[in-house]
Automatic annotation (TrEMBL):
The entry's keywords: Amino-acid biosynthesis, Decarboxylase, Lyase, Lysine biosynthesis, Pyridoxal phosphate
NCBIfam families: lysA (TIGR01048)
Protein name (Swiss-Prot/TrEMBL): Diaminopimelate decarboxylase
Species whose genome carries this gene: Acetobacter thailandicus
Lyase listed as a keyword: yes
Name of the coding gene: lysA
Subunit-structure text: Homodimer.
Length: 444
């Protein structure tokens, strides 16, 4: 997994990065293109930093994922993990392609409904759902609530009774399987906060069947994010198959298995997770059990569809010989490098600059934190004051994790669709940052 800022001696070249990303091309005159559209043109008109999304990439990846799931031979519903990128345009596009939504908050519930996703196509996950969020889900009639603890089970039963509703639920099980991913995004180990211990799941499921207001239908699991191998999935699903068979042997009705998400992408040189391999793991371990199946992809769909455009503010020479290229994007825009030491490809928008010789450089943002670093010692073409760059694979966990730290307004967002680009979020005005702040009269 390419979650390391420094990959000395292993950084792929501009040509390598472009070859692995069919939505990007370098034109000798227009520079870097996304789906045939000049990114320099967008940067010049909208300004930087600026997010750019490829609608075509979202569509083609959703279509490939759907085709892979059809090979299983059982009913498989796809619920897009809204947390990866919650823009209404993204949700609307994926709804048109047949996706439902996997949500983890009341806000995401409202967004999904606003985007036209049917409540019956929404799955509500999350370890800490509030009473208000659960009541909103019950009122909307969401298709499934994934319950993560005995305590939540009792709370949901009481709320359902109070509101005269019946909640269709699964129990999210923690299979204690190592997803072999970054420690901060693994969710299926016994030490993690997520889910119900495997050893307790059957008894709790039997208990759930006795509680009023609940309609238990099966189990769910999710072992982590940025998973690029099928092996952890097979291990988790094999354990879940054992649980399902045991529950059925005990006379418990189990008809649904939500297989979670987490399929990873290639940021650097790692092999991208393959939906066909995921489908193979599901079919091999669960395909014989006559279940309604579900998956919750996020990063795999949205990650490669987005980039972050930025401009070099200045090039600061250093006694070490490795310069600091300070760009106008920062950790408040793209948090992954500072949060996870994540690696993202960086390509100049200029064809001339992209074709130039490479040398080690540090690329950093202007925020007043040493952690505001995009890469260290990366072999890059020479970047000078005014150079524009694209930071790759930022469509997932990019704009959605942005903040306004250092009173930096949220960046604009653009979507390219069929050769035309549209602003889908205006750049935030600085004054908007304090619009809802109240200064006590004694301080005025």
């Amino acid at each position: 997994m390419a979650d390391s800022l420094s990959h000395a001696g292993t950084s792929p070249s501009v040509a390598d990065l472009l070859a692995a990303r069919p939505n990007l091309k370098m034109d000798g005159v227009s520079g870097l293109l996304m789906d045939g559209v000049s990114l320099s043109t967008i940067a010049g008109k909208v300004g930087t930093p600026c997010w750019v999304l490829s609608a075509n990439t979202l569509r083609t990846r959703m279509q490939r994922l759907s085709a892979a799931m059809q090979q299983i031979g059982s009913e498989v519903s796809i619920h897009y993990a809204v947390k990866a990128n919650d823009h209404l345009a993204v949700l609307s596009l994926l709804r048109q392609e047949g996706a439902g939504a996997d949500i983890v908050s009341g806000g995401e519930l409202t967004r999904a409904l606003k985007a036209g996703i049917k409540a019956s196509d929404i799955v509500f996950s999350g370890v800490g759902k509030t009473d208000a969020e659960l009541e909103a889900a019950l009122g909307a009639g969401v298709g499934q609530i994934n319950v993560e603890s005995k305590e939540e089970l009792e709370i949901l039963s009481a709320l359902a009774r109070k509101n005269g509703k019946t909640a269709t639920i699964t129990l999210r099980v923690n299979p204690d399987v190592d997803a072999r991913t970054h420690a901060k995004i693994t969710t299926g180990l016994a030490a993690n906060k997520f889910g119900i211990a495997f050893e307790e799941a059957q008894a709790l499921y039997a208990h759930a069947l006795t509680l009023p207001g609940l309609a238990p239908v099966g189990f769910s699991t999710h072992i982590g994010s940025q998973i690029t191998s099928a092996a952890p999935y097979r291990a988790a699903y094999a354990r879940m198959a054992t649980l399902i068979q045991s529950a059925r042997s005990a006379g418990l009705d189990v008809s649904v298995m939500d297989c979670g998400g987490g399929l990873g992408i290639s940021y650097c040189t790692e092999t991208e997770g393959q939906p066909e391999a995921l489908a193979g793991a599901i079919k091999a371990e669960l395909g014989h059990l006559n279940l309604k199946l579900a998956i919750e992809p996020g990063r795999w769909l949205a990650g490669p569809a987005g980039i972050l455009l930025s401009t070099v503010i200045l090039r600061k020479e250093h006694a070490s010989g490795v310069p600091f290229c300070i760009i106008d994007a920062a950790m408040n825009d793209l948090a992954r490098p500072s949060m996870y030491d994540a690696w993202h490809g960086i390509i100049p928008l200029s064809a001339h600059e992209a074709a130039g010789p490479v040398a080690p450089a540090h690329v950093v943002g202007p925020v007043c934190e040493s952690g505001d670093t995009f890469t260290r010692d990366r072999d890059l073409p020479s970047l000078q004051r005014g150079s524009r760059v694209a930071i790759l694979d930022a469509g997932a966990y990019g704009a959605v994790m942005s903040s306004t730290y250092n009173t930096r307004p949220l960046a604009a967002e653009v979507m390219i669709d069929n050769g035309t680009w549209h602003i889908i979020r205006e750049r935030q005005e600085t004054e908007e940052l304090w619009r809802h702040e109240i200064v006590p009269s004694a301080l005025t």
